[in-house]
Protein: Peptidase M23
Organism: Lysobacter dokdonensis DS-58
Amino acid sequence: MGKSGIDKARRARLDILREAALHRHVAARLPEGFNGRWTRRQWAHVSLFATLAALVAAIVPGFSDSRHADGIAPAQARTTLALSLPPLSVAKLRGHAGDSWQIVHVERGQTLGSLFEDMDLPAATMHQLLEQPGAKQALTRMKPGTELAFDLPVDGKLRAFRFDRDETHRVEYTFDGDKLTEKVIERPTESRTVVISGTVGKSLFHSARKLGLSGGAINTLTDDIFKYDIDFNEDVASNDRFSVVVEQTWRDGELIRTGPVQAATFTVGGKLHSGFRFERNGKAEYFTADGRPLKKSFIRMPIPYARLTSSFGSRRHPVLGTVRQHKGVDYGASTGTPIMAAGDARVQFVGWKGGYGRAVILDHGRGYTTLYGHMSRFGEIKQGQKIPQGKVIGYVGMTGLATGPHLHYEFRINGVHRNPLSITMPPPEPLNGAALAQFRSQTSNALARIQSVEKVIYADAGAPPKKNKKA
Ligand SMILES: [Zn+2]
């Protein structure tokens, strides 16, 4: 940008600031991209959730223990009171009366240096800031979205600068010539365990997002907890309902973080499915109410959106033309479709294997192995590596003896080929002993309580729920 360009930008900025100073209503506009805080209308709604939160926090005491494992400081106060309607004070958002705060959100690739340059502020001022022991670390490694505030009066000289050192500390520096005064503002957070409940509507994702569930939490429902019991493409209807227990962290009336799904229910066609989070050997898993893992030892079909094109048993080989046993099943899918590990495993073989072309063999322990053939390319795996169920091990192709792109999948027990579509898969290890006792104490009655919460929301829980009214 040339000198005249900078002048122009500077003049434009000063005009805006002057305008703001002359007409306070201009300043009263909320900052652009304002989305973190809730409107009054949303606050009115939250009182419903807050009431439910109180209910759950009071009756599911076990969940309050689990957050220690999530790394959330146990010292944080747990609020179980209903939320009151906070004043939406513009003065509070913008600083104080008579000031001229500009709020900036750091964009990807932006540094403090480039920001200062964009705002036409002297580098010396920035260095003055970076010399402060409490500022350097936070300001040199800023994530996109980080909020910074500049107090820029009409004369264009930086009067004060504000940033968040961490989640609970906001730091404000006031410039007075060469002197900088630091003020640290404590911003306490509150954790609340809430039940978020809704109906599927037109789209589970959209309905759940509207209720404040994160994309990650929704994925937990569809990919971790209910994946084995509910077909989200086929089974779910608009009036089916879900309830999710999560811990939310709030600060100044702003939801800043949502923890993992602690418990969830999904009612599909009147049938209730439920899952509870519990850490076994330091690893979080989801279990049924009686402590059996929701995750199966093996996924029945290690490939999404495929059709069975050749089943297990005798058939004429499509390439060789001879009749022989087909020792696996074939799934037709387009080249590049990801192939997942059917179960937790150790990678036994990755490479070219005769007619199988590019193939992977996984050892799942207890005598179980699986083979995946004709891949176009491999996933990021190497021999000997331990991988979790669902890990992408390769992509559909037609290498080796194949007439078209498909996955050839074999399932062996102690070296003997079995039909993966008809054998009874080994059940995963249930919780037992001390772990089961701990699980029970954490989740006891939780399901019943979610149901009582649903009764509050739907009034007619059991019968088809009435349409979830959106205000
Ligand atoms: Zn085959």
